[in-house]
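ugh ok so i messed up the first submission bc i forgot one of the chains. this is the corrected input, ALL of the components this time, i swear. 396 residues overall. if the numbers dont match what u have on ur side tell me asap before i send this to the collaborators (the ones from the other lab, u know who)
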Amino acid sequence: MYFTPPLARLIEEFQKFPGVGPKSAQRMAFFVLNMSDNDVQSLARVLVDAKDKVKHCSSCFHLSANDPCEICTNVRREKSTICVVADSRDVIALEKTREYKGFYHVLNGLISPLEGRGPEQLRIKELLARTAGGTIKEIILAINPTIEGDATVLYISSLVKPLGIKTTRIAFGLPVGSDLEYADEVTLTRALEGRREV
Amino acid sequence: MYFTPPLARLIEEFQKFPGVGPKSAQRMAFFVLNMSDNDVQSLARVLVDAKDKVKHCSSCFHLSANDPCEICTNVRREKSTICVVADSRDVIALEKTREYKGFYHVLNGLISPLEGRGPEQLRIKELLARTAGGTIKEIILAINPTIEGDATVLYISSLVKPLGIKTTRIAFGLPVGSDLEYADEVTLTRALEGRREV
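and heres the new structure output, hopefully the right one now
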């Protein structure tokens, strides 16, 4: 017991965060002690507030303080495309490209028998329900190139294709700015497979 | 504006922490959203509680929820020695060695003309007051081997030595387990200067 109890508890709490080890947790706790009383109270409020207000959009399941979310209610977005992703973080990553203008659908994970996650735990039923109206012309699967990702893509496309909806998956290949020499074999194989006429 | 406002604010707050960049802040914020309501509320309480309760010991200025602190009130500690450090974190580091049994004195920084910190901003007056009773036989300066540290050591020893109190500084040299070949010149010079008969 080197730290006085309230400080020890704070360090403990910070250590629970991903990527925060004992040293970082200690640094963060000391940082809190150096903040003003007001700033600490406001930080505490922001924490509770975020947990309180941020829910899943009932249509696309993206994290949002509003339901339906800002993307689903945006009238300028293209109504004919749904981009399917595993996680809300992927929505953010795609939004940052400013390239995609359609809607999203967050699956909440990928099929993973090892982790005991089957298709029924993902929001696939809800995705199919969204295609019912006939306005959806394309479903883009922006899913990681992993075993779990491949399984999920296969499963979803087997359900969506029969509905006559175009189903695509984002391209895998060399990252821009990278060097062919240092690319791993699997990425290079994917890049070859995905080659396009110039 | 990619994140819904309450989430964006939380990410912003986390980014203020030392060593936390945008990606880590995002990961931490998502971690909070995945915590239970109870856990988030308890985290918020622990934050406010730590800030509220942890103060400086009025004798040694170490961070503590009690005043005087657990170390100053421990009757089993040796009353004749004070170990002077720059920061409360240094107290923790020394306590972890389980070697030192005396008292501490936290200066709250080092003399640094560049950062506008003179001796009067440090708790040197308070240190001298503690030596007044005559029980203190040795003052150990556990101060970093930097320019600021050297200046502070010089200043304090010039005040304490005339009082007839033994004044020592912790040793500098090769860290245990390190390799002489890779040590920098300054460290090697210090190690040579500090050589002892075997």
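quick check: The mean pLDDT of chain B is 93. that seems consistent at least. The first helix of chain B runs from residue 5 to 15.
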